[in-house]
Records
---
Amino acid sequence: MEKIEKKIITNFENVKYDIYAKFWDLWELDGSFERHIEKRITLGHIDDRDDYIVKTLDCLANSDNFIFAEHKNSWDNICYNKSKSWAVIFNENGKIMTSYKIEIGSK
């Protein structure tokens, strides 16, 4: 887990001087960042791109739990959960796979 945590920190260090312009570079797949934003706006979880970035960063900075899990033996992920019902999931390279509002009863 420490190795993945270090990769996450390194990835954030690489964009910290222009986090709003380069936040998409923290994402696992090219183009998936914009799709995630559109989906979260449609669901009413965020107001805009900046709100999504702030909620993701806030979740990471103020996490209640850090969960390490293996998914289908194909990649490891770390899920950072926060009492404000937001989660961020990373792959084994420290890239964000998704960031979303946790809603009881939702899939």
Note: The longest strand covers residues 75-82.
---
Amino acid sequence: MPIASLKLLEDSIAYGKRFRYYKETDTTENRYSSKFKKDRLWYIMNFNDSGTLIHIEIIVRPLDIPSDALAAIENYLSNNFTTYRVKEIRQQYQTTETESLEKTLRNAFQNLLLPDLHYNFIIRGKKTNQKIDYEVLFDAEGRFKTISQRLPPNYDRILY
């Protein structure tokens, strides 16, 4: 793990449990993530190679999403996939140039429903004849942002 990311984790997370650290290798970049449990919620903090925070994710259930946004998301998924199964839903807080890092951390750890958050759906969907894992990103209103095919996990466990 980059030193800057470990320092941020040490300084900002009090009372966290079950910390796990991963290095994800993609075709274009390396990404480091820390997964932990805090206040009965599972958090994932993703960092780039230099240790800069990319985003914070919280694993949520469908009932945690506002009903209008969930209806729009389900409508998109049913229109674009023959069949699909939701494997995991993550509420995502992006870091931005205009917002301070402390504010992003505070918003994520208070689990606030803000207009600039995203929902990351990890699904197994069937478009043609085979089922493929996808990551589908939606905004807070349930509007489609991006879709990408998930590669098989290639994790290197850094610390256990």
Note: The chain is about 20% helix and 45% strand.
